[in-house]
Automatic annotation (TrEMBL):
NCBIfam families: GGDEF. PROSITE patterns: GGDEF. The lineage of its organism: Bacteria, Pseudomonadati, Pseudomonadota, Gammaproteobacteria, Lysobacterales. It comes from the Bacteria. Gene3D superfamilies: 3.30.70.270. Coiled coil: none annotated. This is GGDEF domain-containing protein. Residues 28-99 form the GGDEF domain.
Length: 99
């Protein structure tokens, strides 16, 4: 993604397919989170696209700080991000990360 520097939806899909296949082969647990920035359209409409772009960059950087190196993270659409949590001990661990 040119704006955030993150993998875009196409690269993320390729990476996710590989990670899912690898997890299945190794019997590992993984989870996918969809993160949507609520109210993003109103920010773009009220303050302009430059402000919206800055918000996307800041939000993606902040989210990325809280992830592990093994996790996959990318921009899915305008205001949506995908996180693929790899090597989880239990499926419930995804809920802890989401909070």
């Amino acid at each position: 993604d040119r704006l955030t520097g993150l993998p875009n939806r196409f690269l993320l899909r390729e990476q996710a397919e590989n990670a899912i296949r690898e997890a299945h082969e190794r019997g590992q647990v993984l989870a996918m989170l969809l993160i949507d920035l609520d109210g993003f359209k109103s920010i773009n409409d009220s303050f302009g696209h430059a402000t919206g772009d800055n918000l996307l960059k800041l939000a993606s950087a902040r989210l990325h700080q809280h992830l592990r190196n093994s996790d996959l993270f990318g921009r899915f659409s305008d205001d949506e991000f995908i996180v693929l949590l790899r090597d989880l001990s239990e499926p419930e661990d995804a809920g802890h990360v989401a909070r």
